Amino acid sequence: MSDQAPEPEDLRALGDRIDALRRQEQPPAKSSVPTSGEVAIRFATELVSAVIVGAAIGWGLDWLFGTRPFLTIALFLLGAAAGIRNVIVASREINRRIAAAEDKEP
Q1: Domain of 80, in residue numbers
Q2: CA 54/CA 61 separation, integer angstroms
Q3: Residue 35 contacts by C-beta under 8 Å, 6 or more apart in sequence?
């Protein structure tokens, strides 16, 4: 091995070559416009997860306090309302993404 340190210009050139190779290996950027399948999965996930979490918390509180099925039903309905709200928020976000993508295209 040599006792000489590499030159800064050589290191910059090597770094530039590595960056160029990494850019070539990266997959192409994904389109910002979601497909209909992605939208359906997102909406279903938002709605179902909120309902399940609400019902599970209600069931747990019912078990803890012995008030079956009052809290399960109440928090199930609250979870359904939260899920619907989440779907509305997600739809607004998706509409913004679609509008932004349409503005970018000539």
Answers
A1: 35-104
A2: 11
A3: none
